[in-house]
Write a structure and sequence with these properties.
The structure is a homodimer. By secondary structure, chain A is an all-alpha fold. Chain A is built from four helices and no strands. In chain A, helix 2 packs across helix 3. The longest helix of chain A has 18 residues. Chain A is globular, with a radius of gyration of 22 Å. The N terminus and C terminus of chain A are likely disordered. At the A-B interface, helix 1, helix 2 and helix 3 of A face helix 1, helix 2, helix 3 and helix 4 of B. Chain B binds a DNA duplex (16 and 16 nucleotides) through helix 3. Chains A, B: Belongs to the WUS homeobox family. Chains A, B: This is Homeobox domain-containing protein. Chains A, B: It holds the Pfam family Homeodomain.
DNA sequence: TTGTTATGAATGAAAG
DNA sequence: CTTTCATTCATAACAA
């Protein structure tokens, strides 16, 4: 199991055990050196921005978002950049509700071009959003926000847990009536 | 809190250990579990495929494998995907642990990349490890429909373009359906 | 029960 | 943008 914790960060001691970041607003405030671990606040804001239609923030936007989120914890521009990139990619990936009729008893004709991208049948948290993709959203008025201004953004409560969208209503209701038994690797 | 479906699971019995060797309701058909639990048959096949050299099955292959394995129990494409992903990663992880040769106990510190690709630069590290495995194994000769190349040489420098175009006003709150959450996105 | 291990799933980071 | 890698989180299966 937990073999050598390879990795390249010094993490001199056993840092692994600690973790337990889930469940609560993990500080992530300069904890370890490893990778960015967003706080629930940060994730919430980012998610909301995404929901608002922002998908590929510009450099300027990334900078502003990063600045704002830095209050909630350590964060860098690249984190925001990657977040959006990953979120978008995975959202699309999961969006692939391609119903691969593997159970279809009727031989189907070859589809023109089958989707060749990864796709899982993962449901998505109710998103009744008319898919309005705003590439460039007006973020943060240019008038800089003072420290005091940022303080106002503070307040709030720490929502528990981090975003976890990972469930899916199994669609493959029941099994198919037994196909040729014993297939093993014969199909390779 | 709401982390999707997790927790309750009927756990239809030993699926991994032994048993389940017979075509019979192991925890697959009627179990609504939050997490896939492979049957011994499924694991066996997957392992054999892995041993055969398959490490990163294509979407098409994943599909086929999933279809085949569905006989042994409930399984989805993403399960296969994750299985290979994890198996490969852990194989490598163990390999890495062994790598710590006493020959040179010096730990090389990863240079802190500062950068900028826009803000940060992704330093091109290395690309070694002459991976000697079969990336693409021919599975199921039945229908070896090879999806044609879709779009590969696309995208490119379309970013700048988009950035510029999206400068339209965008009234806050107007277009966006008012977020039900407590938003400090007011600064948008 | 509690603690540990194995591994499914998620995701930040980065390569291609 | 797409795909892969590395690390981490969560939990079923198991041991004590």
């Amino acid at each position: 199991m937990d073999e050598g914790v390879s990795g390249f960060c010094i993490k001199a001691g056993a840092v692994r055990a600690a973790a337990a970041a889930h469940g609560g607003g993990n500080g992530s405030t300069g904890t370890k050196c490893g990778r960015w671990n967003p706080t629930t606040e940060q994730v919430k804001v980012l998610t909301e921005l995404f929901r608002s239609g922002l998908r590929t923030p510009s450099t300027d936007q990334i900078q502003k978002i990063s600045t704002q989120l830095s209050f909630y914890g350590k964060i860098e521009s690249k984190n925001v950049f990657y977040w959006f990139q990953n979120h978008k990619a995975r959202e699309r990936q999961k969006r692939r509700k391609v119903s691969m009729d593997e159970n279809d008893p009727v031989f189907r004709r070859e589809d023109k071009f089958s989707a060749s991208k990864r796709f899982f049948e993962v449901n998505q948290v109710t998103h009744d959003q008319p898919e309005r993709v705003i590439e460039t959203l007006q973020l943060f008025p240019l008038n800089s926000l003072d420290e005091t201004e940022q303080e106002k953004l503070r307040s709030l409560h720490a929502n528990e847990y981090r975003e976890t969208v990972g469930t899916f209503p199994y669609t493959m209701g029941s099994e198919i009536d037994h196909p040729p038994l014993d297939l093993r690797l014969s199909f390779i």
